[in-house]
Amino acid sequence: MILLIDSGSTKTHFVLLSDEGTFEEHTTVGFNPYYYHKDDFYNLLRNELYLKLKGIRINRIYYYGAGCSSETNCALVDQTLSLFFPSAQIEVEHDLFGAAIALFGKRRGIACILGTGSNSCLWDGERIIENVPSLGYMLGDEGSGTYLGKLILAAVLSNEADIEISKAFYREYKLSFSTSLERIYQEPYPNRFFSGLSEFAKKHIGNDWCRYQVKQNFTDFVDKQVSKYSGYQTSPVSFIGSVAFHFHDILTEVLDKNNITLGKVMQNPMEGLIEYHLSN
Q1: Nearest Cα residue to 144 out of 65, 197, 72, 102
Q2: Which CATH number fits domain 2-98+270-279: 3.30.420.40, 3.60.9.10, 3.40.33.10, 3.30.200.100?
Q3: Within its chain, how far is the Cα of 181 from the centroid?
Q4: What number of CA atoms fall less than 13 Å from residue 80's CA on the CB side?
Q5: Domain boundaries defined on the chain
Q6: What's the pLDDT tens digit per position in 129-156?
Q7: Beta strands across the sheet bearing 21-29
Q8: 3-state SS, residue 172
Q9: What does pTM read for this prediction?
Q10: What kind and span of H or E run contains 224?
């Protein structure tokens, strides 16, 4: 059996594969070693996965995870998985590597992740050959749900947002100015709160001001990420993530304006990962 794991900051998707295809799958909360503690991952595996797979022999594990861009973080994930699956061969890669495989397989292109966070790379069909650094939600993450949430929230709290959007925000989230700041600066995982506002944007996308924020989100991503790659206007640019998927029409508009060829848009990479690993 092969266990595929796609882990983002918000959601982790586990799929168990047999030679015939998908055998079993589960979805849990996300994990990012930059933001969460090692114990969080241990508890996630113990409580959400191990008991469900107990008794099933796992031969190989392919883990594609947000935050797995350093040897330290990859080792943390590897060591924790080994505690539960000691006989399995384990490969830990960054989620961007998994996204590139899912989107392009063995073909060349620019692979992008626009979900809770954002990232991108130029993929040559086997490896990442260029990567504009992703600075995380505090310094970057343009194009992501987190960045979009920050654009909206900053404008709402500064009284610069459309009045109807501001009213809707305070009403729907049952927050005031002060409790909004408490939610950001005093409670854990503010990135999840910011990212959750992408659902708010989706709900109110008929509002011109709200639509403009989504467009600005994608424009900033093109400026800070996509436009930095060699031949970005001659290579297909494909996307994985809920933000790219749900605002596909606005993303297309921004790419067209910048003479960029849109390839695929996928909500999550698992379908592409399953196809790749079953055929390789």
Answers
A1: 197
A2: 3.30.420.40
A3: 25
A4: 22
A5: 2-98+270-279
A6: 999 988 766 777 899 999 999 999 999 9
A7: 21-29, 11-18, 2-7, 60-65, 89-94
A8: helix
A9: 0.82
A10: helix 208-224
